[in-house]
Amino acid sequence: MRDFRLKCFGLILLVILVMCSKFDGCEGRKGRRWRKQKSPYSSAGGKKGKNGGGHNHGSVGGDYLSPALRSNPITEYPMKTAMFNVLDFRAKGDGITDDTEAFQAAWADACKVEGSTVVVPAKFEFLVGPISFSGPYCQPNIALQKQLVTILASRFRHDPLNSFLQRKGLTKFTSRLDGMIIAPTDAKRWGSGLLWWIEFSKLQGISIRGSGTIEGQGSVWWTTTKSDVDPINAELSMKLPQIKPALRFYGSYNVTVTGITIQNSPQCHLKFDNCEAVQVFNMTINSPGSSLNTDGIHLQNSRDVMIHHTNMSCSDDCVSIQTGCSNINIHSVECGPGHGISIGGLGRDNTKACVSNITVRDVNMHNTMTGVRIKTWQGGSGSVESIKFSNIRVSEVQTPIVIDQFYCDRSSCKNQTSAVVLSGIAYENMKGTYTVKPVHFACSDTSPCSDISPNRG
């Protein structure tokens, strides 16, 4: 009887052990499946992205994925990205050799990989010619990371690069610039009809960050524009392009520029055209007051833009807001010398211009021609509406408040009856000192300014 009981007990114990073993195994498999499904970093079994697959080149942080797994793109942001160092593409970084082709080659590979990073390493000087980085056919979220480097403009003319960087992650595309970029000064090396030096085109989520400097060497352009003879190459019978932004963004979404310095641009320092969701902050723009037409930041056909905590000194508008702009917020900015913050000129050559929902607040102006200004040409059409200027401090500003519907930048302009309509403009808490007169209003007789709120506070 005792033996029978022991056998029964042993049998029961064996059954319990088998059941526990099966239970643990199911839980273990269930746990592995749960982790696999939750992880955004494995592409196995994931949905295919609309851009198709890409290939990974260079060094990759984290677990290396096999080619089979990499054939299906991940759908979530990775914590680690593929790295493409320009030195691995035969860039010299000696300040003498032209490294434009190396940058182009690095980008060509990075362009195929979603979330990749182009690395420009520290302690090197790279000569790079006029370049345009565009990305309509690249994988999204690629980055250019510049670590304490100096990038010099090439002494030779090169075709523009096909595309630039983008970065995946919480910050989207990121370009790290901690060194210096220097523009060439020879007209031959720029070519004809080139309207920019560094261009970012058709990108989604491009971010330029760092503590470096973009040096435009603009004194050559300023001298050339003022002179009838090209002092650099008179035999070319041509001048350097009159409009050459140092840094231009075109047709891009989710753009950030922060930390860097742009100085001595040939003309406009930083330009956004047809862009959306733009942030500019904690950066410096610097050109002497004696320079020529050196706008700080130029906005055109762009919306949802925020500019803040930025220092600007130049010879023209610190911020110029042109046609097609809406939802612009500028605050905590230092401006001077320069022409202040301007909307316009709008309506030139009988064109239609529309600007709306502009806020400028908490700005210090010092030694500027105007403070906040709206300027339109005679003969134009369209509207400027919902504008607010508040908490503006002016010091030694010629004319702090200006509305001019007869704007003319030459000796004389033809009188015309049509005009851009101005309405819904508010001034609040503007204080400080002026050198000529505090306010200048010149409104059209046929389309007079309306709903203008006087300075309160």
TrEMBL record:
Cleaved signal peptide residues: 1-28
InterPro entries noted in UniProt: Glyco_hydro_28, PbH1, Pectin_lyas_fold, Pectin_lyase_fold/virulence, RHGA/B-epi-like_pectate_lyase
Regions crossing the membrane: none
Pfam assignment, any one: Glyco_hydro_28
Annotated compartments: Secreted, Cell wall
Annotated Gene3D superfamilies: Single-stranded right-handed beta-helix, Pectin lyase-like (2.160.20.10)
GO terms, molecular function: polygalacturonase activity
GO BP, sorted A to Z: carbohydrate metabolic process; cell wall organization
Ranges of residues in domain Rhamnogalacturonase A/B/Epimerase-like pectate lyase: 84-122
Main location: secreted
Region (Disordered): 34-57
Keywords in alphabetical order: Cell wall, Cell wall biogenesis/degradation, Glycosidase, Hydrolase, Secreted, Signal
Family statement: Belongs to the glycosyl hydrolase 28 family.
PANTHER family the record matches: PTHR31375
Protein name as catalogued: Glycosyl hydrolases family 28
Organism of this sequence: Musa troglodytarum (fe'i banana)
